[in-house]
Specification:
This protein is α+β, with helices and mostly antiparallel strands and 245 residues long. The protein has 7 helices and 9 strands. Strand 5 and strand 6 (186-193) form a beta hairpin.
Length: 245
Amino acid sequence: MIATLSDNLVYPDGYMANACLPRITLPGQLACAPRFEEKIETIPQTEWHEYIDDVDNRQYIKWMLDQKRAGSCAWEALAQGMMGNAKKQGLDPVLLNPYSGYAFTSGGVDRGSNIDTNLEFAMRKGCLPEAIWPRSKGALAKAPEELWKKYGRFFRIDEAYDCTSTAETGTALIRGFMVQFGWRGHSCLLLHLIDQYRALFANSWSENWGDMGFGIINLSSVNYMYGAFAFRSIFDFTDYYALVA
């Protein structure tokens, strides 16, 4: 049975609560992510039923990430979406290490991070692969700049939109975007609509949680003061594979 977190958010033992911090930019004011409805026409919620079966992004999630004891949930959802975008392009996705970005955007203290700060970092610098900078180095270990210049550039977010309403979030899912969102101190990745009111999401508490790591949430539970961002990337791993060969 798929877990539903719209009413209750129960953290497993050992997982950090309230690690998704409120956004630091006002809704619609993040420079690198214009408001969704300003760029893409919003589909009225009463018409969603006509499109719901057209998109199923669950099939593009190859790995279910596990933040373990770190407060990196906001980075886990971001990295999960980046890898899903790669697989959606027909590529064999590269396993990313969300800790690589979290070490910088957390401010050097393992108490969580902001979705909008992480997004800006991922668009500017990217995320490092597990093979280059493994989780075993720890959540706060900062990779040297030379690694970011050499490898991070292959794993950047190219396009992002700030969803500030249920109508925008649902439309983004219908349009094929994955949407990172926050609520009740946690962040996950919306994948697709189930009906006019609920959506499927990927969590970062390992495949032992929910339905192999997936759950369902009421869209009314999304808290836009944490943020909800639709994003995608166009990847080309040819040069990356040549570097690591």
